[in-house]
Design brief:
The structure is a single chain. The protein has 6 helices and 6 strands; from the N terminus they run αβββααααββαβ. By secondary structure, the protein is α+β, with helices and mostly antiparallel strands. It has 2 domains: 113 residues, 2-Layer Sandwich (Zincin-like); 38 residues, no CATH class. β2 and β3 form a beta hairpin. α1 packs across α3.
């Protein structure tokens, strides 16, 4: 998307929020800023000197659909409301109002697949459920990767860690 298209979508998002009586700030910069380095964050609302700047991942702007961009813009615009700098009760109520009115799926976080964007980050580890077989990709070390025995899958199963290319057969052999 071009800068003009992104700016028009930001204006549309602000208008939509105000149409459903969400008190977004009057101090939002009308130009969307693109972040070319962002890998895991699709949007950001930056407050400086009482003004808000909405930043989008260049990857989202290049690969995402208009609906995905609108959804992320709406998420960030809601952060300009009084008492909504976090994802608390007020922010969640405004997000639900936008979801109901416009069919968005605004949540606290979004993933590549839910936004229709290719995830090309290198996977260094898979956390695998020994019961249901669910494979959870991890790009970096974390407590979950270092100590999978401390955690359980959503199904209740025990977890183990694999590195890509090191899938084991059913009998535990490579």
């Amino acid at each position: 998307m071009t800068q003009q298209e992104l700016d028009a979508l930001l204006a549309k998002t602000i208008d939509r929020a105000r149409a459903v009586k969400i008190p977004v700030s009057q101090e939002i910069c009308p130009q969307v800023q693109l972040n070319r380095r962002a890998r895991t964050r699709f949007g950001c609302c930056i407050r400086r000197d009482g003004r808000y700047t909405i930043e989008l991942s260049a990857r989202l702007a290049e690969q995402g659909s208009e609906e995905a961009v609108l959804q992320v813009l709406a998420h960030e615009v809601l952060h300009t409301c009084y008492g909504c700098s976090n994802h608390g009760v007020r922010w969640k109520s405004y997000a639900q109002r936008m979801n109901d009115a416009y069919g968005y799926h605004i949540r606290r976080t979004d993933g590549y697949s839910s936004l229709g964007i290719e995830d090309d980050r290198p996977v260094r580890f898979y956390v695998v459920c020994q019961s249901c077989g669910r494979r959870i990709p991890r790009m970096k070390r974390s407590p979950l990767v270092d100590h999978p025995e401390r955690y359980r899958c959503a199904c209740g199963g025990a977890l183990r860690v694999e590195q890509p290319g090191a899938r084991k057969g059913k009998n535990g052999s490579s």
